[in-house]
Amino acid sequence: MDSTVRLSDVAKRAAVGVGTVSRVLNGSANVSAATRQKVLDAIAELGYVPNLVARSLAANRTGLIAAIIPVIGYTQHSEVIQGMTDVLHAHGMNLMIGASGYSDQVELQVIEAFLARRPDAIYVTGVRHTEAVRSTLQRSGIPVVEGSNLTDRPIDTVVGYSNFNASVDLTRLLIDRGYRRLWHVTVTRDFNDRIDDRLAGFRWVTSTETELTADVIRCENSFDGGAEAVRLAMASNIRVEAMTFATDVMAVGGLLECQRRGINVPAQLAIAGFDDLTIAASINPSLTTIKVDRVDLGRKAAEIIVNRLQGNDQTSRIVDVGFQVVERESTRRL
Amino acid sequence: MDSTVRLSDVAKRAAVGVGTVSRVLNGSANVSAATRQKVLDAIAELGYVPNLVARSLAANRTGLIAAIIPVIGYTQHSEVIQGMTDVLHAHGMNLMIGASGYSDQVELQVIEAFLARRPDAIYVTGVRHTEAVRSTLQRSGIPVVEGSNLTDRPIDTVVGYSNFNASVDLTRLLIDRGYRRLWHVTVTRDFNDRIDDRLAGFRWVTSTETELTADVIRCENSFDGGAEAVRLAMASNIRVEAMTFATDVMAVGGLLECQRRGINVPAQLAIAGFDDLTIAASINPSLTTIKVDRVDLGRKAAEIIVNRLQGNDQTSRIVDVGFQVVERESTRRL
DNA sequence: ATGAAAGCGCTAACAG
DNA sequence: CTGTTAGCGCTTTCAT
Questions:
Q1: What is the pLDDT of residue B164?
Q2: CB–CB of A158/A123 below 8 Å?
Q3: B282 and A113 in contact by Cβ < 8 A?
Q4: A70 phi and psi, to 5 degrees?
Q5: Residue B6 and residue B188: Cα distance in Å, rounded?
Q6: CB under 8 Å to B84, separation ≥6 — which residues?
Q7: B-chain residues near A3 (CB < 8 A)
Q8: Residue A191 touches chain B, beta carbons under 8 Å
Q9: Helix, strand or coil for residue A99?
Q10: How far apart are CA B205 and CA B203, in angstroms?
Q11: Predicted TM-score of the model (pTM)
């Protein structure tokens, strides 16, 4: 356990060369069983712990993966990280994490700071980045995985789902259920490509259909923001039958405001969200939303990275993990 | 930007020695303004990015901090990480993160894997660890910060709040409000020192007071688990006036079950939680709970680490960030 | 199958 | 103030 024990100490104790110890450590086949055992014994007796910093420098490979998400404290993003660490840990790799705070400038800073640590690969949230970020990432020469959305022009590889298509399907569900006066609630700050595509999906569907009214408002991405949106809708002279919120957080806030005001959901107002937070299934009425297995998304991202690093050639640069429209009580016509 | 540019290339270009470049990079005072400028120009022209792996090996200091939390996808823990990264990033340090999954064995594995990477310090969630974890951490020789609870016998330093005292204060509030038939709902799996202390606080208060009945049940730590607890309470022939849940997740689940069953909270049943998730303030009725600024807890933990690494002697090994009892509608007597 | 030796890119004395 | 030199602990040829 003593970290002052070095590989050369092990070699001395086992009466072999340092190269041999290194081979044992790295599972090289070219070591006789007897020698291997001698080395393993010496390692155990000395409580030797390899210094991965030195290995990183010599082998030009750190076993560190960098991940950048907008905010670490938001469950949608940290679930992805959970999935990544699960897989990486099983492969002896570790995860460095940083937050961009939805700022392009901070994102670039964090990326540059990470690259100086020579990670073996890097994960970034989202698919639309500044040119500076794109080129920095490209020149880094390491695998880059973009996540949580889809694009046909990834920097390198993307693993996600189509926020646009999900929004389209969700909006169509509402139309199928007979709702004709639709509002979409998007966010004021913290705007990003996922949110943008959800808005775009709503606009695209509603623009092609006739006999519809479709409006868009912006609120803060919070429970209070969602409540505010409902108040705006009620106070407006534009009729509204159904509201799709860009996030479950806002949708739940809207739902709770309806409870307070005695607005019957969905009879008087239908509500749909996006993300399938755990509360969505439990709240009254339960919330119609878009479900994505984010932990699995993280796992897939890590698997792609591990495969790439092992030289297994990736078949596809675009991995669609899909989504699911979950219809619950908040939009169900009686 | 080319990562094949080395410090020696910069030195050559600036026509100085490698030592001088290193001094400029590390902000040593012993460099003349003119020389410094020459070096900075060369760095800019070459797009040099220092290799922090090499620096780590030479300086015997990585600038990496390791953090272990039970589950990354749970907001309570990832908020702490958010606070840590905020501070660490400002000091040029980065965070490696790992999950223990509430398992002692996994925790030890993750810690050992991290130590091989020679982090400058390590953060672990909770204050009660196996002897193997304690000794491994102690022998590592680096600052160890335990978080999210308090103990008078930390491995090294602890930054947190007293889960025991918080539970005591919350239980007393219920008693002050006139509730006499109390139930505490604790968790089945994922038991840990924070949950244990919340239970102990409840038991301690209720055992000293007379004219009280106090019972404890266990449920799964989820919305459904909380709902189940309410169903058990209603079906029981033991009277219950107020329920304190070990977590807000369970409390919210219980509250939603009351909504479904038409149980008036708090008139028929008072409910209190623990953690102050954002939903607690928005739900109907709003939830009485214990509030802790977890992002700030993370910041403080990182500040302690940064200070220790800079040699600033820590005054206290025990940092209490406090908690707040937030009384809301779910326990308020009309 | 194994030992010896040459770095990996940087920091930190040590001289001057 | 600045250049030179000796490592940091490991991997990886290259011989043998």
A1: 98
A2: no
A3: no
A4: -65, -50
A5: 55
A6: B65, B67, B95, B123, B298, B299, B301, B302
A7: 115, 118, 140-141
A8: no
A9: strand
A10: 6
A11: 0.95
Is the Cβ pair A282, B223 closer than 8 Å?
yes
Nearest C-alpha neighbor of B199 from the set B235, B156, B149? B149
Distance between CA atoms of residues B181 and B212, nearest Å: 6
What is the structure's pLDDT at B256?
Answer: 98
Q: How confident is the model at residue A40 (pLDDT cuts 50, 70, 90)?
A: very high
Residues in chain B, total: 334
Of A72, A96, A118, the CB nearest to B78: A72
pLDDT at residue B333, rounded to an integer? 82
Amino acid at A56: S
Integer distance in angstroms from CA A120 to C1' D12? 19
Q: How far is CA B325 from the centre of its chain?
A: 19
The answer to whether the beta carbon of residue A53 comes closer than 7 angstroms to any atom of strand C is: no
Average confidence (pLDDT) over A187-195: 94
Q: How many Cβ pairs closer than 8 A exist between chain A and B?
A: 158
For residue A189, how far is the Cα from the chain centroid? 19
| B97 in Cβ contact with B81 (< 8 Å) | yes
* Contact between chains at B282 and A223 (C-beta distance less than 8 A): yes
Over the stretch A152-190, which tens digit does the pLDDT of each residue have? Answer: 999 999 999 999 999 999 999 999 999 999 999 999 998
Q: Is B227 within 8 Å of chain A by CB?
A: yes
3-class secondary-structure state, position B332: coil
Give me the mean pLDDT over the A127-134 stretch: 97
How crowded is residue B175: how many other Cβ atoms within 10 Å of its Cβ? 16
* Confidence class for position B3, pLDDT limits 50, 70, 90: low
Q: Are strands B324-326 and B289-291 parallel, antiparallel or unpaired?
A: antiparallel
Q: Would you say the C-beta of A13 is within 7 Å of strand C?
A: no
Closest in B2, B71, B281 to A82, CB measured: B71
Under 8 Å between Cβ of A274 and A198: yes
